[in-house]
Amino acid sequence: MEVVKYSANYKDAWDAFVSTSKNGTFLLYRDYMEYHAERFEDHSLLFYKNGKLVALLPANVVGLEVQSHGGLSYGGIVSGATMKAQLMLDVFDAMMQYYKELGFETINYKAIPHIYHQQPADEDLYALFRNKAVFYRRDLNTVISLQNRLPYNTLRKRRLKQARQQGITLGQSHNYKAFQTIVRQVLAEKYSTTPAHTAAEMQLLASRFSGNIKLYTAEKEGNMLAGILIYETATVAHCQYIAATPEGQSIGALGLLTDHLISAVFTHKLYFSFGVSTEQQGQFLNQSLVQYKESYGARALTHDFYSLPVK
Fold first, then answer.
1. Which residue has the higher pLDDT, 39 or 215?
2. Could you please report the per-residue DSSP string of 111-165?
3. What is the distance between the alpha carbons of residues 253 and 238, in angstroms, rounded to a whole number?
4. Which of 157, 187, 174 is nearest to 252 (CA)?
5. Could you tell me the residue range of the domain that residue 35 belongs to?
6. What percent helix, strand, coil does the chain show, rounded to 5?
7. Looking at the structure, do residues 280 and 161 belong to the same domain, yes or no?
């Protein structure tokens, strides 16, 4: 097994492999990974067997720790259709040996949630177990199975009925600046945090991945009341950001927009993901947030994190 550290010379090979992989998404293309390259010291790997590329590891390093990947929602081993259980064990052996020789002590591993898989791709979870990885964090995501939907709860149905009388207009938008203003206000007031992306970064990524990153909004009389930024992959429509103004909340604009995406726009997908409802590395569940998502018939999906000692 040959292990090669990523450099720009491998960009085409990397992206081509992701495009035909069984568990890769557009977040793992180099043009997405590198939009904030100055924040992370990249140390991604390519794995070759008999001269053929068989796996990728998106990764950065911080001190003696390897992170897969610190700037992404997920970033475990990306594998193709030829990946099988023993080959993954070989990949892990090669990865561990490579990082050990460079003096690294730990690999912080974010598994790719199975809803993003286009073929079964949990060989890495077995390899983590075999290499005595420590399971240390579990985030709770909330997801709708779009091909087998559960009904909205009674209150959600009532609020949607009321919202439909408010003259709200729904559609796709490119006004990322206005949406980012709403996002900032919501995150500051509710969570005392700031968004991971600036409006300029949102616009840049949307221009690079126009088929995957889409902003949908609810407006009334030309004013944006609510918006949802969707990250669309082959199997999932994922809500990267959800935000509404106080007026948008009070007249049900966000609920109406959410229903529109679930019931009209993304019916062809397998899953509609609301994102995580946990904080403090999964130890705190935001009950009001998760109950809001569950009111649409969404249910729990876990996202697991592992600490793998390099030995």
1. 215
2. PPPGGG-SS--THHHHHHHHTT-EEEEEEEEEEEETTSPPPPPHHHHHHHHHHTT
3. 19
4. 157
5. 2-131
6. 35, 30, 35
7. yes
DSSP letter for each residue of 227-292: EEEEEE-SSEEEEEEEEE-HHHHHTTHHHHHHHHIIIIISTTSSEEEEEE-EETTTTEE-HHHHHH
User: Strands 45-49 and 52-57, how do they pair?
Assistant: antiparallel
Please tell me the predicted confidence (pLDDT) of residue 191.
74
What is the CATH classification number for the domain harbouring 256? 3.40.630.30
Q: Which of 11-15, 33-37, 101-105, 150-154 has the lowest mean pLDDT?
A: 33-37
Q: What pLDDT sits at residue 195?
A: 83
Q: Give 182-203 pLDDT, tens digit per residue.
A: 999 988 887 778 888 888 889 9
Tokens of 204: 């840049």
The answer to whether residues 303 and 74 touch, using CB atoms and an 8 Å cutoff, is: yes
Burial of residue 201 (number of CB atoms within 10 Å: 0-12, 13-18, 19+): middle
3-state secondary structure of 60: strand
Average pLDDT of every residue of the chain: 95
> What are φ and ψ of residue 68, in 5° steps?
-125, 80
Rounded to the nearest 5°, which phi and psi values hold at 289?
A: -70, -45
Question: Which residue, 96, 122, 131, is CA-closest to 3?
Answer: 96
In a shared domain, residues 44 and 149: no
